[in-house]
Amino acid sequence: MKHFLRMFVQVCLYFYCKCLWRCLKFVVRKLTGQCELQRICYNTKPGAARTMKIEASLKGSKSKRLQTSVNVHPDAIEKTIDDIMELKRINPDVNPQLGVSLQACLLQIVGYRNLIAEVEKLRREPYDSENPQHEEMLLKLWKCLKPNSPLKARISKQWCEIGFQGDDPKTDFRGMGLLGLYNLVYFAEWDTEIAQQVLTDSLHPKYSQLSKAEWEKKKFDKAIGYSFAIVGINITDLAYNLLVSGALKTHFYNVAPEAPTLTHFQQTFCYLMHEFHKFWIDEDPLDIMEFNRVREKFYKRILRQLQNPEMALCPHFAASESLINM
After folding, report:
1. Residue from 282, 251, 284 nearest 265 by CA
2. Per-residue pLDDT tens for 45-54?
């Protein structure tokens, strides 16, 4: 009975707050002469703060047309903006900047949804050693990370040198499918110097770029390395979870002037790999069995950072001037 009463009270409070909120929005519109979308665009700077408010406003609208506007095809965004302006009785000639701002927000919102679908497709596609493209990418990973050490055979213990578990890496991609390979290759190809340094440090952490004085200051009496490729696949899983949970919206809405793409996701992976490497050294784990503890602590730190609406994880991939001026 108590449970039923608690549920009843919660339902009543929900509808009361919902009605109160709609009444408040109606009063504010009458006082300001602006709908909620206008107030958000005019009073919130571009980026995650604005886009996330626009997304919440559209999803929470009582109009089905506004609710479904966040799920349209990218090619239909311009018409969707016209429909929103018409529904809200906003004159585009009097408010030309509003349409531009709404379009930028919708491109990000729709793009994020499409990025999840693209990433999920790669994650679900298994590595196929009979596929020449898959094999080519795998060999490219080796060449980028070990340019001066030719691979003697496709099946070889040499793969352990870049952090795979056995003599055939294909079995290590099961958890993340092709997504893990795509991310590792991107890191090795486009951030080669850092990727090679992280690989070297993972094999010989005591000889990392920390100076002797820094090692002594941190009182490291040991140096626990890790398997570079396996950790890369694990960090891919971390990045994937951040994406599908919506946590990465803060970052992507701040760095992507329009729709976030797979490249943005891969750049984020590079950042996470580099940051996790530094975090691992700072944590100074007793042994590799502490990996899950360190990973979880790192994951929580990233989540806390992403709670800041102005957060951009990769400052060197900052938003373009076109976004700043919208």
Report:
1. 251
2. 999 999 999 9
25 Cβ neighbours under 8 A, 6+ residues apart:
36
Q: How far is CA 302 from the centre of its chain?
A: 11
Among 303, 237, 246, 306, which Cα is nearest to 108's?
Answer: 246
Specify the length of the chain in residues. Answer: 326
Greatest Cα pair distance, the chain, in angstroms, is: 75
**CA dihedral for 162, 163, 165, 171, sign (positive or negative):** negative
Burial (CB count <10 Å: 0-12, 13-18, 19+), residue 110: buried
Quick: pLDDT tens for 231-265.
999 999 999 999 999 999 999 999 998 999 999 99
Q: What is the pTM of this model?
A: 0.84
| 58/53 Cα distance (integer angstroms) | 9
Helix (H, G, I), strand (E, B) or coil at 91: coil
Q: How would DSSP label each residue in 163-191?
A: T-SSS-GGGGGTTTHHHHHHHHHHHHHHS
